[in-house]
Amino acid sequence: MLLGSIEAGGTKFVCAVGNENYQVKDTITFPTTTPEETLQKTADYFKQFTVDAISVASFGPLEIRQTSPKYGYITTTPKKGWQDTDFIGFLKKQVNVPMFFTTDVNGSAYGEYVMSLLSNEDLDSLVYYTIGTGVGGGAIINGKLVGALGHPEMGHVLLKRHPDDLDFAGVCPYHKDCLEGLVSGPTFEARLHQAGQNVPLTDPVWDIMSYYVAQAALQVTLILRPDKIIFGGGVTSEKFLQKVRRDFAKMLNGYVDIPDLTKYIVMPAIANNGSATVGNFALAKRLLKE
Ligand code: ZN
């Protein structure tokens, strides 16, 4: 069995082929440019192999309802040039195999879920957030991806503002100061006029960030009561999560039981942002079994 993975990010695409044991056999990375150029490169890559099925984990928002005429589209994305892009339709014309279509964070959530099963972790639910160029979240409950009318948009929830951050407007083009508008990578440029990777963890802005990320963890804890909350993406680090755990504990204030915080709020188990690739292989394999 040969399975295909497309991790479609706002800055780069990672395509891979692998086997049913989720081992990568070949992979390619290229920058995200126009939809035509990027999707053509993607199709050309998969034409070299005889894949049985492909799973796509893409930046969104996406139309994932099979009953919709716009199924397989990237819809109202803020990413320039990519609004209303028929992602699956474009690929299917050139590589006609079964395709699964979901968000980048759902793909990552599924990868982390599959990994937890393989490592015999006793777990049937989790939430995966990415904090990078944008912020998104996906949830798995009893082994199933959550979302009926569409996929969750956990990056756009509204939060209580940090008292030292009240004059920052936020960067979300739709809501200004939603979670994404307050903690995504571009907020470093907007607040401090420098890139996030140059801002040391001693800078007070990280306490503002952790105040917001802890609220997201609190909300999802209270709404879904998952076994575990994973934070991936370029902005996240283990040292940052230590701050998030501290703020989360204060906010939860012992209200409900949760596991040991170092096991509950965690970095991805799969290193180097590889969660989505594993998730895609598993989702493509699942598609073939259905
Ligand atoms: Zn928003």
Explain how this protein is built.
With 290 residues, this protein is an alpha/beta fold. It has 2 domains: 3-103 and 272-289, 2-Layer Sandwich (Nucleotidyltransferase, domain 5), CATH 3.30.420.40; 120-266, Nucleotidyltransferase, domain 5 (2-Layer Sandwich), CATH 3.30.420. It contains 9 helices and 12 strands. It has helices at residues 35-47, 87-92, 104-118, 179-183, 186-192, 205-224, 238-252, 261-264, 275-289; strands at residues 3-8, 12-18, 24-31, 53-58, 73-74, 85-86, 99-103, 125-131, 135-141, 144-145, 229-232, 265-266. Strands 3-2-1-4-7 form a 5-stranded mixed β-sheet. Strands 10-9-8-11-12 form a 5-stranded mixed β-sheet, with helices on both faces. Strand 2 (12-18) and strand 3 (24-31) form a beta hairpin. Helix 6 (205-224) packs across helix 7. The radius of gyration is 19 Å and the shape is globular. The relative contact order is 0.16. The model has no long low-confidence stretch (mean pLDDT 96). The structure holds zinc ion. Zinc ion binds next to helix 4.
